[in-house]
Amino acid sequence: MIGIRVMGGTSEIVRIYVDGGARGNPGPAAAGILIESTQDGSILYEAGLFLGKATNNVAEYRGLIAGLRQAHKIGADRVEIFSDSELLVKQFNGEYRVRNPVLQNLYNEAKEWERKFRKCTVNHIRREQNAPADRLVNRAIDARADILLPRSRR
Length: 154
What we know:
Number of strands: 6
Distance between the termini: 19 Å
Number of domains: 1
Order of helices and strands: EEEHEHHEHE
Structural class: alpha/beta
Strand content: 25-35%
């Protein structure tokens, strides 16, 4: 079972670190999600989600969507998202057009989730700043299964 701590108030901002990767492109793919509280830095959720065969970009979007879905599930109403995918961040923020039809569908789904929050920002970070989410991606690909870490840790 996934360890989730429900937040006390509805105004807490959570940080969501997302990553996606595929070995092959397309190939075995996974998404990594880490959600932390901005109040105390505690980890509220972390998982590596095995996606089967997919591209890197599809995996990145799947991670974004899963992160938004989980943040909504735990009661957050404001989210700060961090990704090392320049393509994902620039497409989501309207700086790049989404031309690929598969990514367009995922983009639309992510935008639907975005509307469920009072505030949502998507920011680009360097790959080394996203190492925990990247580790979750690799663990899920190695296991060929979802990696759901059972409890919050600080």
